[in-house]
Amino acid sequence: MTLTGQKALVTGGNRGIGLATVRALAEAGAEVHFTARSAANIAEAQRALGDTKATGHHADMTDRPAMTTLMDQGFDILVNNAAMIGPIGRMLDVSVEDWAQNINTNLTSAFHAIQLALPAMLAKGAGIIINISSGAAHRAQEGWSAYCAGKAGLAMLTKSTHMEYGTQGIRIYGFAPGIVDTDMQGTIRASGINPVSKIPRAELAPATDPAQAITWLCTEAAQDLAGQELDIRQPELRARAGLRPLP
Ligand code: NDP
Question: In this structure, which of 2, 39, 83, 243 has its CB flanked by the most CB atoms within 10 Å?
Fold first, then answer.
């Protein structure tokens, strides 16, 4: 896989799937940038990356002016990865403020990033956007009304973007990464609220799996899948991205 000459931005690239994606894209030859919400988080990510070169930017996804400054650089690849799981709780048990913060982070911020990324991509006649989706976009889970609604909205944002800009060189994908061993799954396990929270940690996939698939989606080989909601558990996708078959 080679992405030499491509400039990529991964949101929430300081840990979890985002960090693994930063590493995979850089190893494929892309010039990689990532956002994190503090200087300390950037420094920690840089330590974890070791010799792998990537540039961290201090930006909260929900901060449109900060995102505008960053996106003015122009990117060939945008991975909308940053997201939050909470508030976890049945609808009568969550606050409207927490609910709105989830939608703002997981859905509206992705819209900001896409809207800010598109002009440079359209000027070049090429651009790749990957919205990190979830099984929860398509199947409700108890206690996750904000997360499910936000990810379902994101799936529709993927399709809307494809419909409006797919013929102008923009390749957009929704990509569900599977159940992955990250801090987010730790929070989910601690809640015990639904079947996902009962999945033993030993059964979770490493973040390197979705990172590999995301990197593959950025290559020409994935062109025919543009506009789709994809899931890492799809056997054909796994084979094409070079991942081992699931047991
Ligand atoms: P983590 O919780 O491990 O990491 C989330 C990342 O998003 C962190 O870098 C976090 O930054 C960042 N983030 C959250 N809110 C904001 C914000 N407002 N501005 C900027 N960055 C923000 O999550 P995962 O790595 O597990 O998840 C990555 C993506 O994959 C998410 O979109 C998630 O919904 C999706 N996903 C994950 C699954 C899993 O099993 N892990 C399953 C299905 C989908 P900070 O460190 O500052 O908090």
Answer: 83
